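Lecture notes, continued. The same structure-token format from the folding unit now serves as the input rather than the output. Read the line below as a description of shape only.
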């Protein structure tokens, strides 16, 4: 099973640690693409801070993020599970997982990244700011870079297991599994039900996804189909509705009434 998460916009900033070593990251087939994106981002933020703020969608009060990007190659790094923050990652809370669940997290969880394409939780990365919809000078849209670089890497990472895709729409565009993988793809949507009405609410969506991943890692089950995943989630206490299989996989709706 491969659980694929979105990154967080906000990130922790490590105060010390070794600088970034692209060659030490998982999925070395992505190294060249990672270097292209990194070099383009650093050059932009170093040479034209005003343009960088525009490209990155930053306000005047966020100039420190431009400066941080400009120094990425020398910045301290930490494990990705300590860099990514926010509601989903707070609910997942990797640091408090059992030893067995932490081992499963290292093997089974990956994070979509606009700077690195895809990282594992144990990969050491710096704090950065780069949205998935950004377009960098001389490089173009970062999404296009990853659409070209990721397919073979993600197929290899998935192996013969089930893909549990929890990415947001922006990052789902980096790589979409082909129809040949559809029977092994489960996309998870969280719906908040209140007074008979269901809708996607960002906070509920992110928090519940974090709790789902945490529960799966602690439980240790390794379902191989979307239907089997739904059975595991129901056993773990969630209400799950299974959609019809399609060319893009099977959507599981997890319905919650409270956080």
């Amino acid at each position: 099973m491969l659980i694929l998460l979105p990154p967080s916009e906000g990130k922790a900033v490590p105060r010390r640690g070794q600088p970034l070593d692209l060659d030490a990251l998982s999925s070395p087939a992505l190294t060249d693409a990672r270097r292209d994106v990194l070099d383009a981002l650093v050059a932009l933020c170093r040479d034209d801070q005003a343009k960088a703020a525009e490209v990155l969608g930053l306000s005047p009060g966020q100039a420190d993020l431009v400066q941080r990007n400009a120094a990425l190659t020398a910045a301290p790094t930490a494990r990705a599970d300590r860099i990514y923050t926010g509601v989903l990652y707070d609910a997942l809370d990797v640091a408090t997982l059992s030893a067995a669940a932490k081992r499963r997290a290292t093997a089974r969880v990956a994070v979509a990244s606009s700077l690195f394409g895809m990282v594992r939780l144990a990969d050491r990365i710096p704090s950065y700011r780069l949205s998935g919809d950004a377009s960098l000078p001389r490089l173009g849209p970062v999404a296009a870079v990853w659409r070209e670089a990721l397919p073979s890497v993600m197929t290899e990472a998935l192996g013969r297991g089930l893909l549990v895709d929890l990415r947001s729409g922006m990052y789902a565009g980096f790589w979409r599994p082909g129809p040949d993988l559809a029977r092994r793809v489960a996309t998870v949507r969280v719906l908040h039900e209140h007074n008979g009405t269901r809708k996607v609410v960002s906070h509920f969506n992110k928090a519940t996804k974090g709790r789902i991943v945490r529960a799966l890692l602690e439980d240790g089950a390794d379902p191989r189909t979307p239907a089997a995943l739904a059975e595991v989630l129901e056993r773990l206490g969630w209400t799950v509705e299974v959609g019809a299989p399609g060319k893009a996989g099977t959507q599981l709706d997890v319905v919650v009434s409270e956080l």
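Point for the exam: The longest helix spans residues 202-219.
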